[in-house]
């Protein structure tokens, strides 16, 4: 276990409470490494050996390392997503009930609701405003704990431990403050004050916002022997971070791409999601046109990196007996006969061989035949581009909880194999 890699992930998670902040953090790292930002609204002039990145909606990012090799040799692509299940603030959120000021929230993605109770919550995201006659946007992050969703005492809900269905409309609005009778709080005024405090921007009219609550408890290395990483948003910022580390560490002259898109947790159908045109449009501007475009993609490979379900010691029967990935047992190849994952026997063999050559342990996951299966950006991107794809990920507990758990040794395994993938001179498929 390399402590610098662990600390790098912890630092990234702490600065990335939302997809907007995650994208900004990725962009800062890329620029520090000499990558040049491309604006989709302008003409592009790219050169062999160049390093470039482009963002869309401030929440999705594609980074491209152009090598000395011809593009028609193919691309090495790693894909992940920037979003995680959370509570998003509604457009007109103010609620004042029983002397408390609360905010109405909407559940984003398939989240576990119960762990959100009794947590110290803060608020972050993007605010769009008018100042000096111009409409513009800034990211904000309150950082401090400013809200909480208190549980109902067991004395008033004796059935709580027998399975309690949570009503998202009534039971999830966080409490921000107590307010005297007759006093009305203005949420937009609070955001305007934050813009002044965080960015020095005064005299603004807040027009709209995309804000999410998050747990302020920092990520941590835990366990008697430091075996685990506990944090929010491991799904899937862990893969974004590993992909970036691999891209920056890779050697050689191959053409490499990192794709980190938003909205995977809600289906990826958006202008900046994997089921939108973002990646294809970027590649169309970089690659040769006509049949050369297809030839290039057919010589390419995508590793779709998204967390996998580790076998839980208390719930081992939730896994197929022959496919129970262990934390710290290495990356997991994810397979599904119904194409919820895009892995084929050829792409799985390629990744397994790559792991073996790099001395990285590798595992397999197939969902129980009597259970449904989640999905990833893998099948979506394969369906959009026709690119060969393998779905992999690091085993995780408590996926989609407010705090998830992964193995501390697995991060190094993933970075090592992705670095080798980006550096490889051949895609033997």
TrEMBL record:
Q: Which UniProt keywords apply?
A: Aminopeptidase, Hydrolase, Metal-binding, Metalloprotease, Protease, Zinc
Write down the superkingdom of origin: Bacteria
SUPFAM superfamilies hit by this protein: Aminopeptidase/glucanase lid domain (SSF101821), Zn-dependent exopeptidases (SSF53187)
Cofactors (names): Zn(2+)
Q: Which InterPro entries match?
A: M18_aminopeptidase_2, Peptidase_M18, Peptidase_M18_dom2
What's its top-level EC category? hydrolase
Q: What is its EC number?
A: 3.4.11.-
Spell out the molecular function terms from Gene Ontology: aminopeptidase activity
Residue positions annotated to bind Zn(2+) are 81, 155, 400
Task: Tell me which family the UniProt entry assigns to this protein.
Answer: Belongs to the peptidase M18 family.
Record protein name field = Probable M18 family aminopeptidase 2
- To which species is this protein native? Pseudomonas benzopyrenica
